[in-house]
Amino acid sequence: MTAEPLRYAERLAADLAACCDGALRAAYLHGSAALGGWVADRSDVDILFVAADDVANQAVTAASELLETSGHDCPGRGLECSMVTVGQARDPAPPWPFLLHMTAGVHGKGLVLGRGHPGDPDLLIHYAVCREAGLGLLGPPPREMIGPVSRPQILAYLADELDWGLANAPECYAVLNACRGLTYLADGLIVSKIAGGRRALEAGLAPAGLVQRALDQQQAKVPERPAGPDAVSFVTAASASLRAAAHG
User: Fold this and answer.
1) The overall pTM is greater than 0.70
2) Among 3, 65, 156, 175, which residue's CB has the most CB atoms within a 10 Å radius?
3) What residue ranges of the chain are covered by domains with CATH 3.30.460.10?
4) Ranges of residues in the chain whose predicted pLDDT is under 70
């Protein structure tokens, strides 16, 4: 499952290293491809790039131009990547600053430059996943490059993500992220959506029929659908549990 996104990510990291003229210090494949839940019809290829603190503006511009043209041959639903500095990665903290963020895939293309931007809270979970399971494409192992994110920060982020998912995403996204959140709450493990759903089934953390329905959607066995009343009830309760633990 990981071979195709890994090959793509390795090529892209090598191209970006050449483009940045030595300023690229590390690159990590994360997300579902690293956590073991990558499904071509449902998953993006997620990459975190780390550049030198003194990276030149022209190198960032060149990197953004390369990334804008790189998504056309990306497997899965497309590319989602961020570039941060060494200092930002080693001391991850709000407001979660970055150099650039790029998406290119089935939902279109978008580039955001970090200069003058308030920050990207999603970097919190990107850092945490990279430390837990990131696949190194370039540079040292992720735990040598990326500092820790605290448990309360992760719990609060996961709760916010559940609220967002109910309002904006398909049922499988919200339900399986709730399973992931409850797995982290119970065991301190960061897992894929699919692994979270399976863990919830094994441990009785969620209604079995609801979780199986979400797993079938996530694995493209059935079409995605909006969250039903049982999904809303489950995800809302999971969000409240995560938020209480974050503030407890």
Assistant:
1) yes
2) 175
3) 3-145
4) 1, 106-108
Q: Which of 182, 164, 192 is nearest to 234 (CA)?
A: 182
Crossing angle between the packed helical segments 193-203 and 208-218, to the nearest 10 degrees: 160
113-130 confidence digits (pLDDT tens): 999 899 999 999 999 999
